[in-house]
Every structure is written in structure tokens, then in C-alpha cells.
Amino acid sequence: MKESRRSFIKKTAAAGSVAIVAPTIVSAKVFGANDRINAAVLGLNGRGKSHIQGFMAQDNVQVTTLCDPDMNILKNRQKEFKEKYGDDVALEQDLRRVMDDKDIDVISIASPNHWHALSVIWACQAGKDCYVEKPGSHNIWEGRKMVEAAEKYDRIVQHGVQLRSSPAVNEAIQLMRDGYIGRVYMARGLVFRWRGDIGDQGFSAVPDGLDYDLWTGPAPKRPFTKNLVHYNWHWHWDYGNGDVGNQGIHETDLCMWGLDVGLPTKITSMGGKFLWDDCKEVPEVLTSIYHYPDEGKIIQFEVRPWCTNTEEGATVGNIFYGEKGIIVVDGYDKYKSYLGQNREPGKSGDDGGIAATGMDRGAGGTDRHFTNFIDAVRAHDKTLLNAPVETAHLSSGLAHLGNIAYRLGKVLTFNPHAEQFVNDPEADEMLTRNYREGYVVPNMV
């Protein structure tokens, strides 16, 4: 699979219109097989817990620092860490002090979406390699800046889409490359997740122990509400990107990987809120179409929030359509295929029955994904990465384009080489944002 993946990266990494500046520094540290790698995890309320587990499962890797703007969460994670691993771990609320710590080699980012790109850029500038949760960026412009920073500072950056480290998913991609279902012309991404009513808790005092200014970081600072901190920021535009930019990044990434395409030329989206009278700003239901007329390919993407059917047994996954049949990727680590008009069952595969037995996904693709990252860090070789920074920018960018089309309510024409819309200043304004002083995403060129 490496040749197919690398050809995809080579083709799509050139999407930006600005030339990449040559690296200005070399690796901050060269690791031998016996050198311990020290890791810091940023963002500990959700996926950060899996990041701790993923790093601590690696040979000669130690999580030495936990960072979160909420000291209450930090103290809970510190206690859990001691109980599970028998080690002490340092706590830090301000990620800038983590970046300044010369003893930390890698940064793992599981903070809210609006912090991802700036955290990656600061880590690269500090000479640290990093693993960043999906989506890699909160908007398209800062995604490109993240790619430029990794190149300029010669850093290893892995995107947290663990299905790229799944043997079964790689096998499915290879089948498509080999023509198993003929010419593949369409991919369908599915995000059918139970997302309930979050209500509207109004404004309240900032809880003790939370540095709300740090939590807000690059985003506009709103009066504090429990509807933002700690999870429901996903459903507010200033901080999250809806479910297409949450769970959906796994699927946008796989759609693009399977079709072997970059960013599209035509985008349209439609959806809305149909179930809950709550304070979510993002749509509950969203259907987006991404058209690649020059390649003769198309992506359909659908988000649903509540009671629904499955599609070929999948509720979160991807379906690829070819002239000879279809391939269905269910979740993170299994696939099946059907051939011909009579839908004859074809080849299938899974990662050791992990999904079927209900085991935590950390037992499979996630831990492999961290292993892949650490291998690349030790070798200081980004070509080893299964999900390099370019894929973070592109898979996140696809979600951002769909959201922009939804918010503007019109069909958009996009120039994927310039990464700008065609004759549409209103849409271009939504490619970036205004950043708060002290938290500005820097231009790398």
C-alpha cells in the first residue's frame, strides 16, 4: 500500500498555491533504538485518554506531562495515571510551557478543534514532532499553514485517523487500486451517530480550576457556558465543525484515499436542525456532494443524528462504487465486497475480529497508528507515516468545504490548486478566521 499512499500524497501535497520554504532546522534530537522518547498529551477530557494509553503501549516511550486548561481534569488524570502505570506525571495548564520544555520530544494533541493547527505549528517551531487528532485544522487556511510548518521545521506530524494503520482497510484500498471492482467512480461517507438534545444552559461563572482564556485560545471569547466546555463545543462554529468535522474526518479521509483525489471543484450541501430545539449551531442532518469533473469522480457524504437505517450494515463507514461491484468499509477495521448485478459476496477482511468482538478500537488500529508515528519519529522519516500532515489538511479541508457550502446555501466552485473559491469573495472569507492577539496562526512564508 505504501506506493499508492505516497502517490496520493505526492499528487495532493502540491495543492497549495504558495511555495514551501526549505527547512530551517534539523531534527532536535536523533533517536536510537534504546533512547526513551518523552511525550506530552494536550487535552485530557476525551481522546487524550486514548493518547496516553497509545503512547504508554509503545516500547521505550513515556508520557511525562499532561496539559489541559482545566486543572480539575488534570488532577483526575494524574491520579488515574499513577494507579494504572505506577508513575508520576507532571501537570501543566499552559501548552506554551510544554513547548518550552526541552525534555519533551513529542506532543500529542487532543484538544478542541480550534486549537489543533496552532498547537501543531507551535510544536514544529519548538522542534518537536506531533500527533494531532482529527480534524487537523479548524479551517482551510490554517490547515495549509500546518503543512508548511511541518515542512519548514522538518518535523514529523501524524494525523489521528487510525484506519490508515488498519491492515484490513489497506487491503480494501489495494483491491480498488488493483481493479477488483473496476473503475471506482464514487465514494459515499456515512456518519450516523446518536447525537441528542444538549439543551441551552445559558451563561454562568467560569468554574474554579479552569483557565477559560487558555481554553478559548485562537477563537472568539464568548461568555462562559457549560454548553461549550467540555464536549459540546463540537456543535458551535467558533470551536467545532459539526459531525462531518468530528467523526466524519475518518470518512472524508477514506473517501479521498479510496478515490485517489485531492480537494474538489464543485461543492454543494443541504441540511438543518429537525429534531432538537437546543443551542447547537451546526446542522443535525447534513448531505454534501463533492464533484471532481476532471477525474470523473464524485463523493457523497451524509450525517444523521438519531434513529436511522444502516447502509450495507454500516452506520459509520464508507461505500465505494465501481463498474464491477462495491466495497463497504465498516468502521475502522473491516470491509466486505459485493460483485455484479446479483451482488455476489466477494472478498472481505477484518483486523483479527476486533470490531466483531466489541473490543476497544485502541486494541487495534489506534495502537498501530501510534506505533507507526513512533517508528517515523525514531527514523526521522516522514515517508514512513501512514497519515502525514498533508492528509490532515486535505481530509479536514473536504469537511470545511461542505460546511461553507451549507452555511452560504449555494453551489460553490473551488480552485483546488490555489485553495480559493472562484469569483466568490464571500466564500473566501470563510477559508480563515480572525485570531485573538497572542494566539494568531502565523504565516509560514
Question: Could you walk me through the main structural features you see in this protein, from its secondary elements to its overall organization?
Answer:
Residues 37-160 form the Gfo/Idh/MocA-like oxidoreductase N-terminal domain. Pfam families: GFO_IDH_MocA (PF01408), GFO_IDH_MocA_C2 (PF19051). Residues 192-256, 368-439 form the Gfo/Idh/MocA-like oxidoreductase bacterial type C-terminal domain. The chain is of the alpha/beta class. It folds into 2 domains: 2-162 and 375-387, 3-Layer(aba) Sandwich (Rossmann fold), CATH 3.40.50; 165-199 and 227-363 and 396-431, Dihydrodipicolinate Reductase, domain 2. The protein is 30% helix and 20% strand. The protein contains 13 helices and 16 strands. The strands form 2 sheets. Strands 14-13-12-11-7-10-9-8-15-16 form a 10-stranded mixed sheet. Helix 6 (140-152) runs antiparallel to helix 12 (389-408) and helix 9 packs across helix 12 (389-408). The radius of gyration is 21 Å and the shape is globular.
Biggest beta-sheet profile: 10 strands, mixed
Mean of residue pLDDT? 91
Which percent range fits the helix content?
25-40%
Radius of gyration: 21 Å
CATH architecture of the largest domain: 2-Layer Sandwich
Could you tell me how far the N terminus lies from the C terminus, measured between alpha carbons in angstroms? 33 Å
Could you say how many structural domains there are in total? 2
**Highest CATH level, the class of the largest domain:** Alpha Beta
